[in-house]
Amino acid sequence: MRSSASIAAIFLAALSLGPAAKADSYIPAGITFFRADVTVREDAALEVREEITVDHAASFYKYGFHRDLPISPNDHWDPRYVGAFKPDNGIRVDILEVTEDGLPASYKQGSGYTYHQIYIGKRGVPLDDGEHHFLLHYTVDFALTTGAPRDQLYWNAIGVNCYAPVAEAILAIHLPSTISNENVQVEPRVASQGGHSKLLPGSTLERADDASGAIVYRATNVAARQSLSLVVNWPSGYIRETKYRHLRRDGWTLAAPCVVFLYYLIAWFRIGPDPKPGSVQARYEPPEGLSPAGIRYIASGTTDGRSFAAVIAQLAVRGCLRVEAANGKYKFSQLMSDRATQAALAPEEARCLGLLFEDGPSVELTPAMDERNAAQNGRYVFHIHEELAKQLSNKYFTRNSGTIALGVLMTLFFASILAATTSGRDTTGAYMFTFWILFCGLMIGMMIEVSFLSAWRTVARAGTGWIKMLPGTLAVAVFLGIIGFLLKKLAEGVSLSYAVMLVAFLLINLGWAPFLKRKTPLGRQVFDEIAGFRQFLEKVEQDQLNRLGGPGAASQNLEKLIPYAIALEVKEAWGDQLAQAFFATTVFTEQ
Prior knowledge:
42% of the residues lie in helices and 21% in strands. The protein is α+β, with helices and mostly antiparallel strands and 591 residues long. β4 (92-100) and β5 (103-104) form a beta hairpin.
């Protein structure tokens, strides 16, 4: 009997202890502990520190552990606090630290619509069922709503994209010490997106005491895709957003343009100043041995449509061709000229004459901006430039092109590194956009500097030719618009600092290039002679030149001045109209 009683007692004890032992060994699956400490800084940035403990969570993280930071539009959905839904709410983060089980962990941040996702450790490898402790430390910009009468923070701590249940969640908001708790209003909530779900049975949500004065709320038994959120507001005036806050995240990228600017500054000092100008005296003849196109090349460093017009006018004055204008087109007819006249032509004039009539005794040109006409007219300008460069390059002035080329290479080098290492919400296409902006921006900027500004000045002075300027100006405006659009995309997807950096690169290279141009001693002398000749044309012969209806109507003395007046932008009758018609074909600068 005693033996039977002992066995029964042991059996009853086992039955009574069994459930308790099973309850004690139960471990909830998913996130067992979650704590977020959000510190509101006086410069309107947030500093967030998250502690996450997971256990038996393999079924929730089949492709590795990932954390959806609570910054997506799904987490900031409530129009009462953040306005209308936007695919990009403008919130940006900077990851400072990620650890797993106390050790630094590798991580990968998403981009575009997955910008809020942080993958920790190896991707594609399921998380084991053991216990793991993760720590994330990051800063957040543009999550606060500031302005009278109250500033506000709306923060969904866990995030509504969390598919794992959370046994215990704590959210602590640390406000600046200057804000009194008496002036702070708090609205806590545990809910899913839309706020329709309710606490599970046995769940709790309560405020916890904190010795530091932080606003702390604790929730238990938070369901999957539910989040502990707080809306905290306080009187305005304590948070002061910095004036250039948008540049704060990646402001260091502006160091690269500063290096390029310093390079150009050192080069400017090394090159030294231009030779001092001499006295300018009126000259009644052009500098000896220089053709009209050559004078323009020296005076502006440019070969363009006006150079072409000057060559045409010179050939007409010498009796090599006849110019007839009708309906916006120009017909050039070859005239018989003797060998002496042919031999007296400048190399670029002789070459252009041969090209014009290589297919017959007459040719008709039009300044229309279609591809065929642009190629045809540009061909003449190219050959004129080629001949001028052979004769005059580096003889009268130098642009220090090697120095500029090195500056451009430095720009491309820095840009390639920054484009390859850039980070942001959406860096897709950043590399391609960067080089497209720099290449097109530099090319268009050069065109504006060497051609468009001069052409618009001529049009403004003459009061005519506006319509002919429109096609080229519209093309430039379209490219500038595209550049502006791409810069906007980079500012949104990468950062404003990155877009400002590219603009700085363009302005530095285009701004310094004209300042590095230097005249040689001979160039200084010829420049002064050209200035004296232009002075003569402007003050003595201007009225008579303007009254000329064409080369045949001029006296012999004035006739020979017309090509030079066109080249120096003095003549404003038929030759000037011809120059305006063809100015936009092609532009070449002295290298």
